[in-house]
Design brief:
By secondary structure, the chain is of the alpha/beta class. Helix content is about 30%, strand content about 20%. It contains 15 helices and 18 strands. The radius of gyration is 23 Å and the shape is globular. The termini are far apart.
Length: about 475
């Protein structure tokens, strides 16, 4: 007799996961590739990368790779193509406001556009927790998602966005978006944030320096990262950095570091922004170098969101025309100081655009901010992984790392726009061919192909076709 608890329940089989990570034992050899490893090093030609399931197991010159120990391995011929780590968008808001169908389509476009991980910088984490799970287990195609739960002062929570992401609850009184003040039990508040599945606390608005420091200390004690705006008003950039946060967002806020009339609340920032820009541009070029040096010493990462100021100009009178010069100087001084810069967008391009917004940010950093493509690629890979606290498992092509890879037809060191010439994206060892996304029926095509781990490319620009086994 079969015990009741051991009998299978009809109709309770696991849901199919056509985009799941490759299984251990599925060995793939990417041969003849020009390797850009994510560290900022020059490309190495004639390389081979071996993956086993979701993990990179070997990286070596092709002529030194020993294949007899890899029986049944799948061979992908990438002669003429370039392989680099999957890209990381370090500033997204896929759930503000929550729209499940739209978020899934944007995540699909991100993955087929080379993005294998994102930081979700607060939103309705009820939705994002499920989307993150679905992408992780492969029910839907999408990048890995690292969520932040937001903490801000009580005065912030009449902002309409807080109502959008707290539907059915009271803004400021949810675990994923909390109002905090000096009387808040921060041990409980951080524990509640952790319970949402968030990996970080986002410090946002209307907080004094001492409270920013206390939130940061408690979040770190409980094993969470702390991501903050570079100024949270009344706490200014120097205060935020001194609190020990891991990442600061929006480089233009660093201009508020100079002395002068400063906002005392989040909603006052726009009326002070033009003055802050003018004061910054009139100051010596090294005026914020002390702050930037402190960021370098502490390892504080700068999520620049550079193109945002050009794409969505501030409504502050007189500020929009000054923003490009402010951003160029700030990013130039940050680079000179050795501050790690990562690539966040804080927006998504329209749904009809074939590529995610990260590609626009990368091009903007090169063309408008003067960053060399090699630096920008590192910012979008290894630095992005560090921003998410994941530099030990992703962001570089080396043994032991996740097999999150991007294969493009042309050298992005020559032209950052070549990152759009995508052959395939590999996430956790499973390939997602760009040609499939570009098909008119791409919304349905993948779901009809549960074994979407096809084999090999034959040269740059090729689609992934059935290949040899060794």
């Amino acid at each position: 007799m079969v015990d009741r608890d051991e009998r299978p329940i009809a109709g309770n089989d696991p849901a199919p996961a056509p985009f799941a990570a490759a299984e251990p034992g599925q060995v793939v050899i990417y041969r003849g590739v020009s390797l850009i490893d994510g560290t900022g090093a020059p490309a190495r030609h004639g390389m081979a990368v071996v993956t086993d399931g979701p993990t990179i197991t070997a990286v070596a010159p092709e002529d030194e790779l020993r294949t007899p120990g890899l029986p049944g391995a799948e061979t992908v011929d990438l002669r003429g193509a370039f392989l680099l780590p999957g890209l990381i968008d370090t500033h997204q808001h896929l759930s503000t406001p929550p729209n499940r169908a739209q978020a899934e389509e944007l995540m699909r476009r991100q993955l087929y556009g080379g993005v294998t991980a994102v930081r979700e910088m607060a939103g309705d984490l009820r939705q994002m927790a499920d989307l993150a799970r679905a992408a992780l287990v492969g029910e839907i195609p999408g990048p890995d998602v690292h969520n932040a739960a937001l903490m801000a002062g009580p005065g912030f929570f009449d902002d309409p966005r807080t109502w959008q992401v707290s539907q059915g609850a009271v803004p400021g009184a949810t675990a994923w978006m909390q109002a905090v003040d000096d009387g808040t039990d921060l041990r409980l508040a951080v524990a509640m944030a952790r319970g949402t599945g968030a990996t970080a606390v986002k410090v946002y608005a209307d907080l004094e320096p001492s409270l920013v420091a206390r939130v940061t200390e408690e979040a770190h004690r409980q094993g969470m990262r702390v991501w903050a705006h570079a100024a949270v008003f009344p706490a200014m950039p120097r205060d935020v950095v001194a609190a020990g946060v891991d990442v600061v967002s929006h480089a233009h806020y660093l201009a508020y570091d100079l002395a002068g009339d400063r906002p005392v609340a989040y909603r006052q920032q726009r009326e002070h922004l033009a003055d802050a820009y003018e004061r910054f541009l009139a100051a010596p070029e090294d005026a914020v170098d002390g702050l930037l040096d402190d960021m370098r010493r502490r390892g504080t990462i700068l999520d620049a969101t550079a193109s945002l100021t050009a794409r969505i100009p501030t409504s502050a009178p007189g500020a929009a025309g000054l923003a490009p010069d402010v951003m160029r100087r700030l990013i130039g001084r940050a680079r000179a100081a050795g501050v790690t810069i990562c690539t966040g967008t804080d927006y998504e391009s329209p749904q009809g655009d074939p590529y995610p917004s990260l590609h626009d940010e990368l091009r903007f950093l090169v063309e408008a901010m003067g960053m060399p493509p090699r630096e920008v690629i590192r910012a979008a890979t290894l630095a992005g992984a560090a921003a998410a606290g994941q530099e030990g498992v992703m962001g570089a092509v080396r043994p032991g790392m996740l097999a999150n890879l991007l294969v493009v037809a042309d050298d992005p060191h020559d032209d950052i726009g070549h990152l759009r010439n995508i052959i395939t994206t590999v996430k956790r060892g499973r390939r997602h061919d760009r040609a499939d996304y570009d098909r008119p029926d791409h919304h349905r095509a993948d779901h009809h192909r549960p074994d979407h781990h096809r084999a090999s490319a034959t040269g740059a620009g090729a689609t992934i076709e059935e290949g040899a086994r060794e």
